[in-house]
Amino acid sequence: MSKKGFYIFYILLAVLLIITNITTFIIANTVSVALPNGKVIVSREEYQLLKEYHKLFDIEKILKNRYVDEVQGSVLVEGAMKGMTNSLGDPYTVYMNKKEFSDFMTQTTGSYGGIGIVVAVDKDDHIVVVSPIKNTPGERAGIKSGDIIVEVNGKKVSGKNLEEAVSMMRGPQGTQVTITIMRDGKTFTKTIIREIIKLETVYDEMLPDKIGYIKITMFDQSTYKDFKAALDRLKSQGIKGLIIDLRDNPGGLLEECVNIGNLLLPKGVIVTTKGRADNQEYYSKGPGLGLPLAVLVNKGSASASEILAGAIKDRKVGVLVGTTTFGKGLVQSIADFGDGTGLKYTIARYYTPDGTNIQGKGIDPNYVVELPKDYTLKDTPDLKEDTQLIKAYEIVKSEIK
User: Which of 134, 215, 299, 328 is catalytic?
Assistant: First the structure.
């Protein structure tokens, strides 16, 4: 054989070896191959998963075949997924079945049947009312921010079964739900008729001396649009200052909050989120409101409300009036599995422009003002008895040029 022939032979041999190695690698790492003896070759990744989860499969097999009562496999699988999220000890990270996921998504997009209260979990694992939603059965029944829900329809509830408790309080219009509440160390029970909860999140009014007032009850998909319309309406009437009322606002969608911040703040940071898979800084493009600004807050102001209030305070474009906020400094994301189920999970912590994470601490206002004892916030601005609003009004009025 000539030198050229040997050269071509070795090239072909090398190519054949490369192809063989690539094929072997693909088979060993990406596919399962059935052998004549019934055994199966699996990828390294699949093998590691089998080693890690084999006990889970063993438990499922034992329970399906030997548990005293017949068990549906789907029930065991759902329980395993819920258990996985519960193991984190984070009440805001939860796997949701079809009903739970549908209820959750409805709350941020439209209306739902329920009593109209927003709840969270405190450091002692209690289910705490962040705030009742305006003009809902919960508000009319006298439920207040800070109330602890200990039972729903006779079943004890806590932060460990938050989503179950929320699901139990929701239901068709006209049906009843009974909740047991603890307030100031005393417990009492209320039976409430569910209604369709319509989420109207923005209310505006012109106060004397051309001071505008905008109340935001929560941040859903229409809040930014409605807030901008309200602000434009007040500007067209010649406002000289603005009061934003975030009291009893439990939060909602981060994007809506950031968009409103962009209307109010000069160019710069609104909020920063930090997590393993989510690190972002949200900026205002400016120029900002350019008017005297005061923001009303209380212990019912949480999450997105605290992001907006914290940005306004840290950037010194306005002052906070009222009492310390709730203290929820976590950001949740949603995974939609496409079959009607979903996962809500904490993806990051958020930090105010000064770098503060307020989880479990809340934000202290610039001016601490308590409401009169037994005073209940009105649906419309009250400049006679609402001491927090009166203080904010005086501050804004004093800064008008």
Answer: 328
CATH code of 188's domain: 2.30.42.10
Own/partner pairs, 96-105, CB within 8 angstroms, 24+ separation: 96/163, 96/341, 96/342, 96/343, 96/344, 97/341, 98/339, 98/340, 98/341, 99/167, 100/163, 100/167, 101/336, 101/340, 101/341, 101/342, 102/340, 103/166, 103/167, 103/170, 104/342, 104/344, 105/342
Tell me, yes or no, whether 110 and 238 share the same domain.
Answer: no
Residue of 218, 111, 120 lying closest to 165 (CA atoms): 120
Domain shared by 352 and 253, yes or no: yes
**Distance separating alpha carbons of residues 381 and 377, to the nearest angstrom:** 9
CA atoms within 13 A on the CB side of 357: 12
Mean pLDDT lowest among 18-27, 203-212, 230-239, 366-375: 18-27
> Helix axis angle, 162-169 relative to 98-109, nearest 10°?
70
pLDDT of res. 381: 94
Closest CA to 369 of 383, 355, 381, 387: 387
Q: E strands of 259-340, at which residues?
A: 268-274, 280-284, 293-297, 319-322, 330-336
Regarding whether 182 and 263 lie in a shared domain, the answer is no
Predicted confidence (pLDDT) per residue in 110-158, tens digit: 567 899 998 888 888 899 998 888 789 999 999 998 899 999 999 999 9
- Out of 103, 204, 314, 386, the active site residue is 314
User: Catalytic site residue 303?
Assistant: yes
Exposed/middle/buried for 277, CB within 10 Å: 0-12, 13-18, 19+? exposed
Report the DSSP beta bridge partners of residue 182. Answer: 148, 187
Task: Tally the residues of the chain.
Answer: 401
Annotated active-site residue in 131, 284, 301, 303: 303
Residue 128 lies in a domain: yes
Tens digits of per-residue pLDDT, 344-385?
999 999 999 999 999 999 999 999 999 998 888 887 899 999
Other CB atoms within a 10 A radius of the CB of residue 333 amount to: 15
